[in-house]
């Protein structure tokens, strides 16, 4: 069979698309006629659904490629017929990257969309068709929310696979395995990468893309990978218990998982016609099944006709979802219980907490939830490869796109937002500096200010210096400095300030303490990348600059400069001629008469914000960076807060508990801004920061959580899933049923928040021995039970079914003791004393005697 037949078809579609740049509503109408209706709803500033009225050509392609091969083929056939495109229907889509169904659009919703965004995507499309891509166009597209480097290279590949290669989640591991270095997220780097790839292989880009996909398909297909895919395919609809997980399609049809880890089995409402009969198991209405289905997927519950489809590959699951969710299947007669329809564009929640008992994978799954936010395409493409997901997570942590913090009893507002740090100056005087906490630093990065600072030469943590150049009156010396990108101070008779010290020069020794500090700081403490503020008055600045080089002493000053202004710092003046009052930014404090000193209350992010609000246009690259508020703005950032319930939420978040609400974020209609208590600077939370918390319900009951936290976070249950242990046995002891029995009794005695998680037993998959099982019970199960029941040994014995076992197989020994032989104590009642039977941990009978729980089919 001829391969890559899609290439001429996609090219013909591209040529046809050219005519729709000025007729975008008509293009959307074509999509409706073809049968693509999901994903065409826009949202206004009030989050109300409105019809989409503009679209770019890349998004058009993605609305087809988000589907599996069979559905994609049907839709392309309808497009060719409906639009009258002169093209042959392809027989394959080998090498075509699949668009992420969660993030199909290349642009944000209308409330955040700017006029240039869709237009720039059209520019890139037309340039690519002509083979004349401009770097500035490509790079500008990268700044559009929802358009990442992977998506952009995929889309270029769709229309010109002979010239462009998709650098995405499918190809990155393949490239790394062949030691082909990956490009950075820029046109310049991508342009240099393409020739390297050509030289490394004599195959076409389409062949290489297909080879990468084939390599990835060789990975094992498991229940865990199926769940990841279903979470991505039907975002926000998952509900369930430790025994069942259910999803709903946009049309309201239900899917649910069978708990078996040996096969991927999906409960659905009708039988897929494309699966073999052996892969479909009918569940007539009278056949019993998991009783949890009634609460989470009523259409699949007992009393309803259902089917259990066993799937062998991820491609089978994708095909099933395409058929089931997009109209190919006929809906069941009963549609009385449906979940609200999500859209392809449903974003992950800004604030979420994964909660559950110990050992249920909360921290484990923060990797998946983080990648769903920061790099959903990589997650979808590598759902089967835990090592790849972990490595990508580490890369994003290294890039500071994802950050991690653990709450504890002593964690405070000062650690999280900002606080004062005590230091001593060079004269051993105690000074206090405002130090940003982990959350404030992340907000500064996410706002884009940090990246802009790097672009214009400002260091990551610049010190801010107040400087007076020849007082504040009109000055030729100052004018010379601004014109020649310098900062100068006097005391030229002292000589080279970098070399003088106390006792080495009479002129230096004659200076007062303030002046000595000034000349020392100017020559030895001001560093490249620091900020210089030249003042106009006690509250106003007239210029902002960034230090470009080291201090130098000039024996002869230039014409027009004061004769003793021999001390020079190279400074790139970003803006001059200002009349900007920054008293509020400086914590409400006025400048002093000292020539040079550090402004410890001012940080670059607050200063940059003040400049932007005042409409200050910084020069050259700085102007372009600040005007567009940077490549970082819009990129998602994640803060993982482990053990969020162990800290005092009201004390740690303070006033920020309100600011993290989606509607109160920066740029939203109801934006809130607070004045921070230490720096006295205004602060708001960017809309591209996501918070993921984990909460151990055994550590503190969910009911005791601060109500303010509950209202502002989406709580996602993570309960024990004994299904992942199906098939594991140790000398005949079925681990899933044993754990189910233990948890059933714990739930009856103490509540479901105190169950034991399945993760403790996963090591038995690799070593199902009595020694491994003994280690789990000694080091984890029994200590947890002691903590849960506060050493109420009788309840622990009930949980472990000790009363049903022979004495040698009981984990706990009991004996009766009386207070006898003491004066006045002869009639004391008997008391039961308990001890641990260490030998029982190594006896298989101790585990065989644990009463098993019932595992639903």
From TrEMBL:
Region annotation (Disordered) ranges: 332-351
Protein name, entry field: GTPase
Gene3D superfamilies recorded: P-loop containing nucleotide triphosphate hydrolases
Residue ranges annotated for the ATPase dynein-related AAA domain, each copy included: 628-713
Single GO term (MF): ATP hydrolysis activity
Chain ranges passing through the membrane: none
Species assigned in the record: Thermomonas aquatica
């Amino acid at each position: 069979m001829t391969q890559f037949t899609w290439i001429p078809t996609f090219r013909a579609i591209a040529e046809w698309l050219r005519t729709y740049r000025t007729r975008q509503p008509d293009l959307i109408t074509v999509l409706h006629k073809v049968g693509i209706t999901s994903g065409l709803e826009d949202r206004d500033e009030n989050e109300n659904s409105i019809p989409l009225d503009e679209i770019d050509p890349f998004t058009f392609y993605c609305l087809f490629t988000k589907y599996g091969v069979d559905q994609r083929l049907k839709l392309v056939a309808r497009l060719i017929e409906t639009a009258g495109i002169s093209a042959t229907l392809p027989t394959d889509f080998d090498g075509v990257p699949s668009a992420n169904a969660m993030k199909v659009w290349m642009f944000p919703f209308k409330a955040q969309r700017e006029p240039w965004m869709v237009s720039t995507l059209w520019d890139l499309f037309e340039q690519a068709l002509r083979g004349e891509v401009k770097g500035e166009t490509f790079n500008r597209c990268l700044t559009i929310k929802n358009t990442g480097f992977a998506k952009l290279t995929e889309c270029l590949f769709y229309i010109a696979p002979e010239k462009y290669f998709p650098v995405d989640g499918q190809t990155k591991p393949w490239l790394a395995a062949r030691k082909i270095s990956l490009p950075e997220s820029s046109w310049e780097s991508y342009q240099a990468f393409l020739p390297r790839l050509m030289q490394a292989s004599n195959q076409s880009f389409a062949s290489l893309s297909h080879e990468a996909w084939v390599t990835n398909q060789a990975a094992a297909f498991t229940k865990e990978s199926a769940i990841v895919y279903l979470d991505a395919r039907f975002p926000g609809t998952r509900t369930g218990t430790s025994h069942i997980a259910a999803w709903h399609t946009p049309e309201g049809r239900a899917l649910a998982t069978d708990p078996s880890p040996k096969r991927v089995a999906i409960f659905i409402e009708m039988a897929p016609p494309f699966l073999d009969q052996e892969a479909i198991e009918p569940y007539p209405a009278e056949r019993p099944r998991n009783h949890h289905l009634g609460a989470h997927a009523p259409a699949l519950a007992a009393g309803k006709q259902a089917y259990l489809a066993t799937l062998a590959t991820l491609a089978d699951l994708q095909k099933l979802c395409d058929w089931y969710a997009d109209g190919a299947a006929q809906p069941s007669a009963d549609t009385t219980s449906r979940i609200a329809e999500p859209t392809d564009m449903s974003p992950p929640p800004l604030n979420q907490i994964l909660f559950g008992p110990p050992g249920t994978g909360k921290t484990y799954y923060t990797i998946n939830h983080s990648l769903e936010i920061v790099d959903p395409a990589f997650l979808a493409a590598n759902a089967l490869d835990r090592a790849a997901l972990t490595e990508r997570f580490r890369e994003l942590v290294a890039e500071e796109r994802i950050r991690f913090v653990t709450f504890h009893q002593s964690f405070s507002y000062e650690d999280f937002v900002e606080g004062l740090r005590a230091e001593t100056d060079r004269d051993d005087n105690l000074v206090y500096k405002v130090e940003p906490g982990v959350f404030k630093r992340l907000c500064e990065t996410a706002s884009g200010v940090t990246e802009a600072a790097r672009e214009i030469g400002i260091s990551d943590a610049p010190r801010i210096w107040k400087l007076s150049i020849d007082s504040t009156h009109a000055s030729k010396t100052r004018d010379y400095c601004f014109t020649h990108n310098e900062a100068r101070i006097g005391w030229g008779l002292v000589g080279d300030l970098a070399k003088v010290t106390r006792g080495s020069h009479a002129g230096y020794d004659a200076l007062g303490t303030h002046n000595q500090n000034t000349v020392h700081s100017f020559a030895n403490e001001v560093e490249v990348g620091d900020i210089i503020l030249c003042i106009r008055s006690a509250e106003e600045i007239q210029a902002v600059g960034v230090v470009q080089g080291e201090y130098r002493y000039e024996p002869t000053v230039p014409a027009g400069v004061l004769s003793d202004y021999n001390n020079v710092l190279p400074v790139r003046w970003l803006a001059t001629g200002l009349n900007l009052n920054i008293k509020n930014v400086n914590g409400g404090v006025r400048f002093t008469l000292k020539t040079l000193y550090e402004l410890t209350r001012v940080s670059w992010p607050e200063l940059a914000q003040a400049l932007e609000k005042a409409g200050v246009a910084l020069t050259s690259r700085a102007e372009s960076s600040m005007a567009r508020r940077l490549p970082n703005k819009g990129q998602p950032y994640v803060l993982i807060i482990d053990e969020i319930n162990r800290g005092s939420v009201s004390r740690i978040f303070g006033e920020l508990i309100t600011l993290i609400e989606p509607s109160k974020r920066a740029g939203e209609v109801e934006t809130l801004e607070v004045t921070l208590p230490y720096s006295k600077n205004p602060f708001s939370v960017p809309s591209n920061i996501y918070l993921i918390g984990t909460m151990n319900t055994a550590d503190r009951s969910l009911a005791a959580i601060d109500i303010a936290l509950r209202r502002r976070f989406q709580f996602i249950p993570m309960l024990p899933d004994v299904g992942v242990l199906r098939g594991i046995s140790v000398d005949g002891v079925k681990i899933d049923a044993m754990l189910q029995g233990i948890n059933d009794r714990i739930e009856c005695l103490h509540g479901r928040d105190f169950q034991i998680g399945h993760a403790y037993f996963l090591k038995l998959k690799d070593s199902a021995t009595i020694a491994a099982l003994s280690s789990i019970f000694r080091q984890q199960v029994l200590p947890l039970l002691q903590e849960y029941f506060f050493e109420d040994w009788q309840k622990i014995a009930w949980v472990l079914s000790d009363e049903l076992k022979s004495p040698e197989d009981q984990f706990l020994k009991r004996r009766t003791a009386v207070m006898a032989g003491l004066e006045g104590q002869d009639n004391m009642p008997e008391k039961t004393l308990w001890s641990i039977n260490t030998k029982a941990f190594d006896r298989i009978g101790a585990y065989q005697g644990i009463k098993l729980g019932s595992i639903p089919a």
